[in-house]
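Our preliminary data section would be incomplete without showing what the modeling component actually yields. Below, a chain of 245 amino acids is followed by its predicted structure, encoded as tokens that our downstream tools consume directly.
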Amino acid sequence: MPTFRDEAIVLRTHKLGEADRIVTMLGRSRGKIRAVAKGVRRTGSRFGARLEPFMLVDVQCYEGRSLDTVTQVVTLGAYAGDIIADYGRYTAASAIVEAADRMTEDAGSPEQYALLVAALRSLARGEHAPGLTLDSYLLRALSIAGWAPSLDDCAVTGEPGPHSTFLIPSGGVVADRVAPPGAPRVDPMTLGLMAALRDGDWEVAEAADDRTRSRATGLIAAYAQFHLERGLKSLPLVDRSPASA
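Predicted structure:
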């Protein structure tokens, strides 16, 4: 039976029978991996704790027709403990892995994998507010997928900005002459924060006030869910208190 080995992030797990689990992972090389981890729920399992969501692992599997079988796991990044210990980090990480799972349904990519690893590592280390890390991840992941929102030039005509009307179905800001009556307006501070999160300009992002963060968060969530074509179940649970924004 052929085997393979890959570096992967555990996205989610499901119980199977009395002692097994189905583990869904995003691999650096293979993209989405769905594998059975046999006996993983038994006390004393060799690699039970290594196959929890948010863990970065080196995994070896037997290939199967519909499901592979895990044969060996080595921990590369034990992010789960630090993430689960903090509610803000945990809820943000849950939304991140759900979005990653959705964006790689058809095929993974090294860029999406690297972005996911970086986001979870940042959350585990507490480098930035969890809500900002989540919003930055969503904007960057959407950009990799080809759905980058236009935040300066008109998404319809290409006219140079700045523009203040934001239309999610059109792909971002649009010029006044093509905007429908009553279209929602977005202030420059909110667009600036979104651009900073997309570009990784953390000095600007962390200087934003709570009101600007809240407006940006709403737009980012709506934009992401529109392009993913259905809601992310974890998003409403994300802790958006000022300390976790």
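Residues 3-78 form a domain with the OB fold (Dihydrolipoamide Acetyltransferase, E2P) fold (CATH 2.40.50.140). Strands lie at 3-16, 20-27, 31-37, 56-62, 68-77, 165-167, 172-174. Preliminary results of this kind motivate Aim 1 of the renewal.
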